[in-house]
Specification:
Elements lengths: L1 H9 L7 E5 L3 H7 L4 H22 L3 E8 L7 H25 L2 E5 L7 H14 L6 E8 L1 H17 L10 H7 L10 E4 L18 E4 L9 H12 L9
Parallel strand pairs: 1-2, 1-5, 2-4, 3-4, 5-6
Helix pairs in contact: 2-3, 3-4, 4-5
């Protein structure tokens, strides 16, 4: 890590405040090793643990990862069951790690579609870490960007129908405040691993002016050197936010 931090300092790199990551390639990583897909997911979860620690040490304040999408339910029952079991274990272990590392954890997505036991673990994790002042770590579980916007629109429409809100009061800020990510800054940098170059329904509203970095590295192989490469790429971009 000392070498990484020296490079950031020597190159005068601007470290993004908020990095979002699409964790892609776990299954392919396992297949290359003649192992079941679930083995790749286990290794991928270990990479998450290491990368969020590395990110914080580099000066990144927020990390948001795409763990399970609303579309992932279409996978085989065995894989979905294994993913849910892995997520449940990860959430339990995360309480101890978050307390140790002063990390604040938040889960976004439609929790009504999850097993009550998993929701209980999510609530326990969020409550246990809410006052931590270190890295702000957000996990997207049963998350879909279009579904998130649909839920926000339905919530706003109900307030209009109940007379609590005027149509003229609906602003971009109001919509942002009704999204799962309310209170979080929009990501500065999106990283997607495994060579795919699409958003896959991840944070479509929040990524409006985010810089995108795509890499062929499969997620379980992603390391701090790869994160540094992404930060270097980010520094080569000129963020104009629609201006000249």
């Amino acid at each position: 890590m000392e070498k990484i931090l020296k490079a950031i300092k020597d190159e005068n790199l601007n470290v993004p405040k908020h990095v979002a990551i699409i964790l892609d390639g776990n299954g392919r990583w396992a297949k290359k090793r003649n192992m079941p897909r679930n083995y790749g997911h286990v290794q991928g979860s270990k990479t998450v643990e290491q990368i969020i620690e590395d990110a914080y040490n580099m000066g990144i304040e927020y990390v948001t990862v795409y763990a399970f999408s609303t579309e992932n339910w279409k996978r085989s029952k065995d894989e979905v069951d294994a993913l849910m079991k892995l997520l449940g274990k990860y959430l339990i272990d995360c309480i101890e790690r978050s307390t140790k590392n002063n990390m604040c954890v938040r889960v976004i997505g439609d929790k009504t579609g999850l097993d009550p036991k998993l929701v209980k673990r999510i609530n326990e994790l969020e409550e246990a870490t809410v006052n931590n002042s270190g890295l702000k770590f957000t996990i997207a579980i049963n998350y879909g960007g279009r579904d998130e916007i649909r839920r926000a629109v339905a919530d706003i429409a109900k307030d209009v129908g109940d007379g609590k809100l005027e149509v003229s009061e609906i602003t971009e800020d109001l919509i942002s405040d009704r999204l799962d990510t309310a209170g979080l800054p929009d990501p500065d940098l999106l990283i997607r691993t495994s060579g795919e170059e699409r958003l896959s329904n991840f944070l479509p509203w929040q990524l409006a002016y985010t810089e995108f970095y795509f890499t062929d590295v499969l997620w379980p192989d992603f390391c701090k050197e790869d994160l540094l490469t992404a930060i270097r790429y980010y520094n080569g971009r000129e963020r104009r936010f629609g201006g000249v």
